[in-house]
Amino acid sequence: MQNQSTSMPIIDGATRLFAIVGHPIAQVRSPRVLTEKLRARGLNDIVIPVHALPEKFDEAMRGLMGLGNLDGLIFTVPYKVQAVPYADTLLTTGRQVGAINVLRREDDGTWTGDMFDGRGMTRGLANQGDNVRGLSVLLLGAGGAGSAIACALAEAGAKSVTIYDIDAPKARALAARVNEAFPQCKVETGGPRLAGHDVLINATPIGMKDSDGLPADVGPLDGVKIVGDVIVLAKPTPLLREAQARGCHTMDGIGMHTGQAEEIVDFFRARKG
Amino acid sequence: MQNQSTSMPIIDGATRLFAIVGHPIAQVRSPRVLTEKLRARGLNDIVIPVHALPEKFDEAMRGLMGLGNLDGLIFTVPYKVQAVPYADTLLTTGRQVGAINVLRREDDGTWTGDMFDGRGMTRGLANQGDNVRGLSVLLLGAGGAGSAIACALAEAGAKSVTIYDIDAPKARALAARVNEAFPQCKVETGGPRLAGHDVLINATPIGMKDSDGLPADVGPLDGVKIVGDVIVLAKPTPLLREAQARGCHTMDGIGMHTGQAEEIVDFFRARKG
After folding, report:
1. ipTM score here?
2. How close is the nearest chain B Cα to the Cα of A8, in Å?
3. Disulfide engineering: B164 pairs with which of B115, B174, B192, B244, CB 3.0-4.6 Å?
4. Domains along chain B?
5. For A52, which of B10, B47, B67 is closest by C-beta distance?
């Protein structure tokens, strides 16, 4: 790791802890990214990686949640569903998705859980001046990422979200849940046809390999305002390359991660009162 | 804290954790001091402060010891005695003192505990080229610090240690324990008289206030090679001022802390095999 021995961590007895919990853990970027964002706000906070072994997850959680100087937890694979019962209060998106990736300790000592995987998309778009408010979205994929993004789009004021998944019952179940949680947004299922939509979001893994091509036969991208893709790659996916060629605004998986980190820091260190 | 927002901690998913556990915890210096020493060896390690509440100490210990990326624990007030039962293997000094301040995870997953409070004195002396090997020591104070220092002196090869404490039975009990553990060193109790000794160590709290004067009426310091004082103060205690005036080599509480940090880092990251 660059500069490891020259740039010293500033950590002391008063440092407040956040922990990202996963199995494995060595691959996560959150400790550095989130710590930098917390420090940039002048806070003596640090995000530490925590490798919780599956057979010791509950023991790890009870130990961590009991510490007097730990203010929040982040969850990555495979613990996003297992973490749900540790929340005293489960916010809307976490409840709809059935999984959380963040737990925050409140002033009264209770823990509030929510799922931020989808808010990275809307925050990432907002960071570049794009807003889904009032727009019609075609969302490809009703899995974990798709579920979280569907909630985030509805929460951000999208007029409608059409969900397509090759597993049609899965898409219908998600549409029903999001409709119930966010009645002001019209959520339905449909074919992967872009016509009539302003925004296209890919929440499937298709596009990780260059040979994958487009995630579905969505028709021409002309006239589409925004195209987002959850895939995290250094170079644009085939979908995003096509979108850029057509003049659409785009958001990739890296921009989503940045947006999500900002949302999580806001959640952890919300101005109180 | 200086540079808090400009000097970024380098921490990522692969960072290995050590934790210093105490109640309270905000005052400890170890996270910064030990992290700097570990980083200086090119290791991606960090020492985090952990505030374990007394009613949740066991829960905290079980959670921390179960983590896959935590390699060691350090204990401060009030947990040095409570930590003993968590050691699968208790090394000599920890056993004699009846308290530990370090637990290290071994390659086989077991935990080895030991007490380093006294080794800071001998390591601090070694750092400045002083060695107690073959010397006769007068040790004032048979409490926690005195117990750990008596073991460290014997371990470092002192010829003899004479222990003085106003609580004579306490001094006798300590002398017996250290004699048993380190039979090559002659440990006995005696009055606080320097005559015939090469080294004087104060392990009592006397000297924290300038008005305290000397910790005991030890007689003239002339001819004494080394005078050590456990008291941590920015300026020399009355004892150390007197010793410096007489040309003795001296070691203060700050130098002991530095020495102890080096000993602990050596213990945590001993070259294996």
Report:
1. 0.88
2. 6
3. B192
4. 16-115 (3.40.50.10860), 119-255 (3.40.50.720)
5. B67
